[in-house]
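Appendix B, example 12.
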Amino acid sequence: MPIFSMTQMDARISELVARLTVLERERAEIVAEIDALRSAHDAGTGAVKVVPSGRADDPTDRNSPIEKKIALFRRLFRGRSDVFPIRWENRTTGRSGYAPACGNEWQPGICGKPKVKCSACPNQAFLAVDEALIERHLRGTDVNGAPFVMGVYPMLADNTCSFLAADFDEEEWRRDAFAFRNSCERHGIPVAIERSRSGNGAHATARVQGRVYRSDKTTDPSHNVLFGARIPDSMRRAKGLPDDAGTDGVGYGFDYPVFWIDRYHPHSVKQHTAFAANTRAEVDAFHAAALKAGGAENGAPGLRKPNYYAAFVLDPDGNNIEAVFRGD
């Protein structure tokens, strides 16, 4: 082994770390593609997978009656029952999205779309979820044979939810999706991944049960999703940290990230996750609530640098959780 000076040694270490980072990314992409190919192969040739129905002696599978399938679907994707979103598509413009299903939609003299938003409409007649609608969704068509896709508003009135849906796209969607899946599996959280409608992304659905903080108090159903994302304007990958920044992270949001998480650390290094707050008071409230829930102090609310007011706590696994407000 050649003898290096301290400066040469530091430079060599940096070079090797950079090479290792590239190799780790390449490996992750290869593993992701292998998993995707295996999943596609299993879907085409494998045996029918039995999905637990809550009773080991009474499984639900593709041969079960429709009533059992609907019941299983409602348990797995439990959300608001008084309203649901329905998918729309404009064939002229190619645009698509979701909007609350309403009995007065496009009724002359009653529906004011697109000038009046559903949340502000005085003639709201939102449709409730029932078994007939779920059956149409599972079959993919309505009574006239037209495409029918319904969604779900997962956040309930008491700020609890039973599942988390995450959307992955852009260049590194495979790696991001499988990193999400691996994290869920390490913590024993059931998760399923499916290819997106376009084929250029993936959706992950994780089964959770807990209370989720929401800063907005709006009653607009289109705001009723996690992390402040809106339908149809979902969050996207807004910013990433370069490899030489001392860590490797990615931020999700709209024009600027509101949710940060780092990646590619060895398992011995805990994760750092950051959420954007709207005010200093929200940072203070986050810190107090986290400590009350069992978190460990890791940095009281205060200015870390100009226009960066933040607080830090450690979760039971030692991960560093941050809330930050950027502003005066």
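Residues 66-139 form one domain. Residues 43-54, 211-236, 243-247, 264-269 have pLDDT under 50 and may be disordered.
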